């Protein structure tokens, strides 16, 4: 049975889009007959044991702290994580390492993959330097931005295969000189079986939310998620007048919260 070790920033039982996508990937690989385990770095903040089971999945944790000025601190973090991955690799003997964004995970996994001759798959869910600009914690072109991008390029270059979450990231990597045949795309999706039989439409709630007109349901464009700048919700809102010109009964429903909520 093929063994796949996933290298993660954080995981279940923490709840985030990152952990839910990870869960879906791990469950899908299990269904294909793979044996999977995961290991998280020091940025996983949830309290728990060194080896934790969540939703039928096994997660190993990395202990320790990385101190020092920016840059050196991240290098120490990669070293701690690589040592932790190495111990698990020696014990469990995986056939494949599957590292997920950010590039700190990829860099740590890459060290171990080269040391043991194990193929490395690197999955990019976002360019974290651009995400930092989008959520206001970084600035484009800064030293941190350029160093983060350089590390990403290094990890991509050394990976045996790269997976992106969308065409935009794939096109960006190709523009950087990454061979197109090295990159695959695996977009987000929803497993509807997880939700069982759809519930009947709640007409009272629809009326309360203004999703009916003249007693009839309106076409609804819905968003459920975090309100970050990089989600492009401002573009969605700006497009509504154009949509209303064609479909006057259309409604926009935003569900969630985050830094852009007040905007």
Contiguous runs where pLDDT drops below 50 for at least 5 residues: none
Q: How do the strands line up in the largest sheet?
A: 3-4-2-1-5-6-7-8
What is the mean pLDDT?
94
Q: Could you say which structural class the secondary elements and strand pairing correspond to?
A: alpha/beta
| H and E order | EHEEEHEHEHHEHEHEEEHE
Q: What percent strand?
A: 15-25%
Q: How many β-strands, per DSSP?
A: 12
Helix content: 25-40%
Count of individual helical segments? 8
Walk me through this protein's architecture.
The protein has 263 residues and is of the alpha/beta class. The chain folds into 2 domains: 3-185, Rossmann fold (3-Layer(aba) Sandwich), CATH 3.40.50.2000; 199-257, no CATH class. Helix content is 39%, strand content 21%. It has helices spanning 17-31, 72-92, 103-116, 128-134, 143-158, 167-175, 203-208, 233-246, and strands spanning 3-8, 35-40, 51-54, 57-60, 96-100, 120-124, 161-164, 183-185, 212-213, 216-217, 220-226, 251-257. It has an 8-stranded mixed sheet with strand order 3-4-2-1-5-6-7-8, sandwiched between helices. Strands 9-10 form a two-stranded antiparallel sheet. It has a two-stranded parallel sheet with strand order 11-12. The longest helix is centred in the N-terminal third of the chain and has 21 residues, at 72-92. The radius of gyration is 21 Å and the shape is globular.
């Amino acid at each position: 049975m093929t063994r796949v070790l996933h290298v993660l920033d954080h995981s279940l039982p923490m709840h985030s889009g990152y952990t839910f996508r990870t869960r879906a990937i791990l469950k899908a690989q299990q269904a294909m007959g793979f044996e999977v385990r995961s290991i998280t770095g020091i940025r996983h903040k949830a309290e728990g044991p060194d080896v934790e089971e969540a939703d039928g999945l096994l997660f190993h944790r990395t202990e320790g702290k990385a101190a020092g000025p920016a840059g050196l601190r991240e290098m120490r973090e990669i070293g701690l994580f690589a040592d932790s991955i190495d111990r698990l690799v020696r014990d469990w003997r995986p056939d494949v390492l599957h590292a997920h964004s950010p590039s700190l995970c990829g860099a740590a996994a890459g060290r171990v993959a080269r040391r043991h001759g194990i193929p490395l798959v690197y999955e990019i869910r976002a360019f974290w330097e651009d995400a930092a600009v989008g959520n206001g914690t970084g600035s484009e072109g800064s030293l941190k931005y350029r160093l983060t991008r350089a590390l990403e390029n290094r990890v991509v270059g050394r990976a045996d295969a790269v997976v992106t979450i969308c065409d935009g990231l794939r096109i960006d990597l190709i523009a950087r000189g990454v061979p197109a045949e090295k990159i695959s795309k695996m977009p987000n999706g929803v497993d509807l079986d997880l939700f069982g039989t759809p519930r009947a439409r709640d007409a009272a709630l629809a009326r309360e939310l203004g999703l009916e007109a003249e007693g009839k349901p309106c076409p609804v464009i819905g968003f459920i998620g975090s309100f970050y700048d990089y989600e492009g919700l401002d573009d969605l809102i700006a497009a509504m007048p154009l949509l209303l010109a064609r479909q006057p009964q259309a409604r926009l429903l935003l569900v969630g919260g985050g830094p852009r909520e007040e905007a």
